[in-house]
Amino acid sequence: MTQTLKIALIGGGHMGGALAAGWLRTKRSGVTADSLVIVDPSPGEPVQDLVERHGVRCVVALDAALAAEMDLVVLAVKPQALETVAAPLAAMLGKDTALISIMAGVTLNRLSMAFGDRAIVRVMPNMPASVGAGVSVCVTNEAGGALEKTVTKLFKPVGSVEWVKDERLIGAVTAVSGSGPAYVFLLAEALAGAGTAEGLPRDLAEKLARETIIGAGALLASSDKSPQELRRSITSPGGTTQAALDALMGSGGGLPELVRNAVNAAERRSRQLGNGNNR
Ligand SMILES: NC(=O)c1ccc[n+]([C@@H]2O[C@H](COP(=O)([O-])OP(=O)(O)OC[C@H]3O[C@@H](n4cnc5c(N)ncnc54)[C@H](OP(=O)(O)O)[C@@H]3O)[C@@H](O)[C@H]2O)c1
Question: Per DSSP, what are the bridge partners of residue 36?
Fold first, then answer.
């Protein structure tokens, strides 16, 4: 594969936009404004910004000539759009064009059936990729083994990169890190709501909840300690934190059980999407 990859990014929404912005921010990604074409009939703001500031090409659809030039196609549309996108695209791609899919639930096998025998890598990124703080987990089909370095180079600019050998783990990855940022945002909402219920002005409650989660995340990032050790280190027996944690971890399983059920639901949904159940 050439040094400057010719990439078609199909889907310039939240995650596609975050990836494209990350690639162009970092020289080491090997992607330049000239080597990237974004395909989206209604791209999001980050992509519009890349078009205006970097002159990245954004088109409504790939034509055969453009498709034939591509080293790599990155699928960043909703899983529900797979069938619509795959048929015309597969017919235009050369057999050496590799495929990366970030679609939740869509298996390597389903991608092979839709796009034929070629190197395919499934990647599950997450939304903090938009600020370079994501985590992406990758798995490849047999033909895609040679792509490991290239894919790692592409996803490093938006966060850390992990590889697994067993594709069945990607459902759990999706449920933990792919969907995980939304769970943390819900915690921020709930914490702000609880503060308001205790009498804090809404603005202050929201600020305190947001800053607390940002600060706790930064502490987690800078510490060698596990989350459990950090929690224990700030919980005095009989104190205020202990009183709250008793409520959060109390009878009936509390928050850990709730999170267990939530992650299990997301993992099951990922498998349904993989089977083409879009409802
Ligand atoms: N967001 C996340 O946190 C996250 C995390 C991990 C993985 N993912 C995966 O990333 C993929 C994209 O998610 P997203 O959140 O970025 O969704 P999104 O914001 O809806 O982006 C998808 C984009 O694709 C466009 N699109 C639809 N049909 C198309 C077509 N035929 N050709 C080209 N573009 C087309 C959409 O346009 P319209 O809006 O006009 O339909 C939209 O701009 C999904 O498969 C998801 O499972 C997302």
Answer: 7
Cα 79 to ligand 1 centroid, rounded to whole Å: 8
Closest C-alpha residue for ligand 1 atom 1: 15
Could you count the other beta carbons within 10 Å of the beta carbon of residue 36?
23
Ligand 1: which of 40, 83, 103, 137 to mutate, judged by most atoms within 8 Å of the beta carbon? 40
- Residue identified by tokens 């002159």 is 55
Amino acid at residue number 186: L
Residues 173, 164 contacting (CB under 8 angstroms):
yes
Quick one: fold of 180-272? ProC C-terminal domain-like fold (1.10.3730)
pLDDT in tens, 72-97: 999 999 998 999 999 999 999 999 99
CATH of 7-165 given 3.40.50.1820, 3.40.50.10860, 3.30.420.10, 3.40.50.720: 3.40.50.720
Residues with CB under 6 A from ligand 1: 10-16, 39-44, 76-79, 81, 84-85, 102-104, 124-127, 178
C-alpha 143 to ligand 1 mean position (Å): 26
189-212 pLDDT per residue, tens:
999 999 999 999 999 999 999 999
Pairing status of strand 98-101 against strand 36-39: unpaired
Ligand 1 midpoint to CA 8 (Å): 14
